[in-house]
Amino acid sequence: MKELFLSDEKYIQTQKIWDAVNLVWPNSLIKNPRDKIIKNPKVCIVYCPLYAKSELDNSKLIEPFQPLEESRVYNKLLVYKSVIEAVESSIKKEGGSMNLLAIFANKGVLLGENQNVKKADNILLAHGELLKRYTKIINVNSVFIDYEQLQVKFPKFVNFKDSLPVTIKSEEDVKLTSKLIQMFNSEICINEKIIDNKKNRKLLNNFIKMYGLEGTYWLIGGYLAFDYMIHDLVGDDGIYIAAERMGILFGISRLTPSLEKVTRIQLLV
After folding, report:
1. What is the rounded distance in angstroms from the CA atom of residue 159 to the CA atom of residue 218?
2. Among 264, 155, 248, CA closest to 203
């Protein structure tokens, strides 16, 4: 994958960085923390669209003229800014500076039933511009890019009731989740396969209980279609910062083996 930043190979200690994150946002967890990282690390965040305050299975996009505060993801934007600036401040004290890669997830966009897709497409373009401007007020060196530019292979809009690519049925949870993993691996995870093990099956089964089989496929599929790219984008010494409103969503990263190599800052908002 094409390099988006040049990196300096001098290393800095990281404990003060993790301490700064916990100070700014105590409801955080550092996964795979490294003792040291390169002086100018690549840091990745992903913006979801500006959804209105509604349930996941009935998602709507806020209108461009509505204030950001009207979005259910507004707090995620605030936390991203606070944590990123705290990390940058810590890195600067060590003589470095981060390179932020802000990515807009303009594929796999959740839409409730009976919504105008053409209108939603125009709104999505406006959301991209709003988030691009928001990124510029974060005081770091940054690049803004979206899923379409990264050629993420997934439908632009999805609904929890959309049909699956392949019909799967089973009365046994283990067989059902294994079949779902097989479908993910054949339809989405072409570059990096999900391991069919007890932990992954349990995770998927929990999602199925919450959102049904179809909802689970379309929700998790939107993550999987991009997640395998993260390691290539930030490298072994990079950082992936993820903010979620529900803790169960962090478990999706477990389905992409290469993310185990990446230091992840998980922020429960």
Report:
1. 7
2. 248
